[in-house]
Amino acid sequence: MALKIIQNDAGYTHVALSGRMDIDGVKAVELEFTSVVCSKPQSAIVDITEVSFIASLGMRMLLSAAKNLRAKNFKVVLYNPQPVVQEALETAGFSTVMPIVSDFAKALEEIGC
Amino acid sequence: MSGHLEFTADNTFDSAAEGARQLEKFAGDCSLPPRKAYQLDLIYEELITNVVKYSYTDNASHQIQVILDDRDDVLTFTIIHDGTDFNPWEQADPDLNVPLEERQEGGIGIMLARKFAQSVDYRRTDGKSIITVVI
Which residues of chain A does B97 touch, with a Cβ-Cβ cutoff of 8 Å? Predict the structure, then answer.
């Protein structure tokens, strides 16, 4: 699993995750992901287009970041999940606690940009 | 298509991850549809993680047996371990109707496994726990 920082100086953080968000994947990116997403007082768009698998450990990583930003009145928006990943996120009730969108303009709208 | 796979993992995350690669190959060999392959992958990951994390109170190495059987479109997945007698299916689901601030981070894995399964079972026989999932 890999983390790519697209930008974090345009009023929001934009990162992309790729690969499997399983035990090994989360271990590989969690520290950097949390540091990048939570260090600035701004919302974050997390592009998960290239995430082929997510298990609960990966969901916990996303939930933890969303809670952290929520405490500062900011959001995590998940952008463009593959259908099987979207189904897993929805089954875990994620759609009620963080926006999951497939349109980048909608992602920007969600964070007020 | 039909297929059968048995392997043992030890109670480490590295060994569990190696097992996931065997599962991926099995899903390919049996031509499982993508959704079913995903569900198998997820159920394996959640259950084996749970067993490795919580089933052993000593520091010894233990063998965890994994059995997969795909027949007539029914995929049966079994984990047998000699750890503590704990029925994961009796664990309460996290409450999904609470706001983000109050959302629990634990318990999601077993809930997902249960929701993606057609049926689940747990038995304790001869000092071993047998967790079965039909996908």
Answer: 96
Backbone angles phi, psi at B3, to 5 degrees: -170, 160
Predicted TM-score of the model (pTM) = 0.92
Residue A66 to residue B100, Cβ atoms within 8 A: yes
Question: Cβ(A49)–Cβ(A83) under 8 Å?
Answer: no
The CATH homologous superfamily of the domain defined by A2-110: STAS domain (3.30.750.24)
Contacts of A23 in chain B (CB under 8 A): 13, 16-17, 45, 49
A90 touches chain B (CB under 8 A): no
All domains in chain B, ordered by first residue:
3-134 (3.30.565.10)
HSE-up of B60 (CA within 13 Å, CB side)? 7
In a structure prediction context, what are the per-residue pLDDT tens digits for chain A, which is 113 residues long?
Answer: 999 999 999 999 999 999 999 988 999 999 999 999 999 999 999 999 999 999 999 999 999 999 999 999 999 999 999 999 999 999 999 999 999 999 999 999 999 98
